[in-house]
Every structure is written in structure tokens, then in C-alpha cells.
Write a structure and sequence with these properties.
Length: about 230
């Protein structure tokens, strides 16, 4: 009868195999305790858990989860990196750590319900992470949003330059039409004055005839004075 602690390990590995986005199988032979601690810290940054498990228990857990793991992937001391998020970031972290610590060997992975070998797992590390893709997408969206504003600003600047050039050209050209209009305006202003002159003379005429009408009234007064004499 299996011991309870072994059953617990099998249940845990099976549950993590089925719930993880990917599981990377590694051999950690030769790594020190401090190096393993450093590797776990790097993997935690990418939402991954690094767990050491016996090969026999791992094989049982994989079989219960529906995977038949080849013997070459479960040879030597094995540790599993369970990815809770983006497996690309985990693959990159493992490859970077393996370059500095050659004792770490990536043997393969379980990805999207299928087993992949070490070469495919290494190619996974060449892909862009989700954060990198999102950053690129955000940059593209920002560029598309800013483009109409730049085009509008360029159009306004060009229009202002054209208006300024047109104004300078008009200011530099001679303006004979304005000079010809000046005498015409002077003639129009003098014409009303000349037309008003006869009206002024006609207005004066009645004033000069009024005394002539009063003259006969003075002659009878002179005749009466002569009679009295």
C-alpha cells in the first residue's frame, strides 16, 4: 500500500500538470542549494513554481494526467517548472540560468497537452513574451492615434506658410488701381460741391428782391412831405 506522503506528491504533481499552461522538465544534478534557491526566485518572477520530485512518482502523476512521459525525460534527478502564466518567460529564465550554470539541463516540456523535446523547448525561449507583445501592440496603437494629429498639424503649418507667402507677394506688387481710384474719388467729392453752388445762388436771390418790393412804399411818404410844403 502506498504511503500517504507519496500519494500526496502524486496528487500534487498531477494537479499541477493539468492546471499549468506548461511544465518544463529539468535535470538539476550538480546545482548547489543556493543555486537552486536563486533559480526558484527567478522562476517566481515569471509566475512559475520549481519542484523536485522522484521520477517514479512523476511518471505515475503524468500517466494519471493523461501523459506518457518517455524514460529519457525522467532519467537522473528531475525537477519540474510549473508555469502558471506565460511559458515563454519561464523558458527564457531557464535558458538564461543554464548559460550561467551549465549543471542545469532542460530536457523537455509538456505544452498545450503534448510533449515537446529539448530542442522545441529551447525554441520556445526564442519567442516574444506576452509583455513584449503587449508593449509592441501599445506602441502601434499609440502611433496610429498620434498620426492624424501630426498630419493635421503639418497641414495647418503648410497653410500658414502659404498664406504668409501670398501676403508677402501682394505687398511687393505695385497697386495702380488704388492710385487711379484716388482722382475718381476726388472728382466724386468735388461734384456735389459744384452742384450745390446753384442752389446757394437760388437761395440768395429771394433775399435780394425783397428790398426792391419795399421801395414803392417809401415814395408816397416823400410825396406827402412835398405837398405839406
Amino acid at each position: 500500500m502506498p504511503r500517504p506522503e507519496k500519494v500526496a506528491v502524486v496528487d500534487e504533481v498531477r494537479e499541477k500538470l493539468t492546471s499549468s499552461t506548461a511544465t518544463v522538465l529539468t535535470e538539476y544534478r550538480g546545482l548547489t542549494v543556493s543555486q537552486l534557491a536563486a533559480l526558484r526566485a527567478e522562476l517566481r518572477k515569471n509566475n512559475a513554481e520549481y519542484k523536485v520530485a522522484k521520477n517514479t512518482l512523476t511518471r505515475i502523476a503524468a500517466r494519471e494526467a493523461g501523459f506518457e512521459v518517455p524514460d529519457e525525460l525522467l532519467s537522473g534527478p528531475t525537477a519540474l517548472a510549473f508555469c502558471a502564466d506565460d511559458p515563454v518567460g519561464v523558458a527564457k529564465a531557464l535558458r538564461t540560468f543554464a548559460k550561467a550554470n551549465p549543471s542545469l539541463v532542460v530536457k523537455g516540456a509538456v505544452l498545450d497537452g503534448r510533449l515537446i523535446d529539448a530542442a522545441e523547448t529551447s525554441r520556445l525561449a526564442d519567442l516574444e513574451t506576452r509583455e513584449e507583445l503587449l508593449a509592441k501592440m501599445a506602441g502601434m496603437i499609440q502611433t496610429l492615434i498620434a498620426q492624424p494629429a501630426r498630419l493635421a498639424q503639418a497641414s495647418l503649418t503648410k497653410m500658414a506658410q502659404l498664406l504668409a507667402a501670398y501676403s508677402e507677394k501682394k505687398a511687393a506688387e505695385p497697386q495702380p488701381a488704388a492710385e487711379a481710384a484716388a482722382p475718381a474719388e476726388a472728382a466724386e467729392e468735388s461734384a456735389p460741391e459744384e452742384a450745390a453752388a446753384p442752389e446757394a445762388e437760388e437761395a440768395k436771390a429771394p433775399a435780394e428782391t425783397e428790398p426792391a418790393a419795399e421801395a414803392p412804399a417809401e415814395e408816397p411818404a416823400a410825396e406827402e412831405a412835398a405837398t405839406e410844403e
